[in-house]
Design brief:
Blueprint (H helix, E strand, L loop, with lengths): L6 H18 L5 H15 L4 E7 L6 E6 L2 H13 L3 H8 L3 E3 L1 H7 L1 H9 L4 E9 L2 E10 L9 H16 L6 H29 L3 H15 L3 H10 L4 H4 L5
Antiparallel strand pairs: 1-2, 1-5, 3-4, 4-5
Length: 246
């Protein structure tokens, strides 16, 4: 990959942002939209994994919100557990954090072995902020030893869009942000349960189960959390409604 954001990446970013905007004007849910934005950011910046960690309303403890793979989810959950890592530093300082392989090991030794074992070598974390309050971090994980230069504007755009999605549950104040975070965290719990159901019933990996949930939501034109709740509650017949492999 080039050391700087190249023209192909810029064109990809435009396509991903256009797709995200189109999705947001249709019926959507908070976590489904945020996950879609996260996946789009990962694709256009050619990351190998990505996730979002937020500060939980009330006690402001780090909590995992979304990830594009089980490997990335594991890193995000462990960061929240030990309260260390690029996400923790981004949340504390309100500034982006970038680290190559060696810098990662020097800066977060307790996380480094787990990070490298999952196939990641470098990281870029960008803050999510609403009205000057940092409440989350978008984390992009790369298999290469160094993070490419020039990715910050694209990462910031996707981060800002995800922030608006979370905060749009009310008018514009801090209470609305808390409401949006609670809604997204509640959706995450349902989606995690549905992933487990699909993985078990269809004998799939967790990542493949998540992809199937996303495909079902797209095919049905329904919010991801609604599809997940239907599977968990037994209100939908997963076998009958899931898209068939071609």
């Amino acid at each position: 990959m080039n050391s700087r954001l190249d023209a192909a990446m810029s064109q990809s970013a435009v396509r991903e942002l256009a797709a995200a905007a189109a999705a947001l004007v249709a019926e959507h849910d908070v976590l489904g939209s945020v996950t879609g934005l996260l996946a789009g950011c990962q694709r256009c910046l050619r990351a190998d994994g990505s996730g979002i960690v937020v500060l939980r309303p009330g006690d402001r403890r780090m909590e995992f919100l979304a990830a594009t793979s089980h490997r990335a989810e594991d890193i995000e959950l462990y960061q929240a557990q030990i309260d260390q890592g690029p996400a923790a530093d981004t949340l504390a300082g309100g500034q982006s954090v970038s680290a190559g392989s060696k810098a990662f090991a020097d800066r977060w030794p307790e996380l480094a072995d787990r990070f490298h074992a999952r196939g990641f070598r470098s990281v870029y974390a960008h803050p999510m902020a609403w009205h000057g309050q940092t409440f989350g971090a978008v984390n992009l994980f790369f298999a290469g030893d160094e993070v490419a230069e020039g990715i910050e504007p694209v990462a910031q755009t996707f981060s800002d869009l995800a922030t608006v999605v979370i905060a749009q549950t009310g008018t514009s104040g801090p209470a609305d942000l808390a409401e949006g975070l609670r809604s997204a965290l509640a959706d995450r719990n349902v989606i995690e349960q549905a992933k487990g159901v699909v993985a078990y019933t269809d004998d799939l990996s967790v990542d493949a189960a998540f992809e199937r949930l996303l495909a079902l939501a797209r095919t049905a034109g329904r919010p991801l959390s609604e599809v997940a709740a239907g599977i968990v509650d037994g209100l939908a017949d997963p076998q009958a409604t899931r898209p068939r492999n071609s």
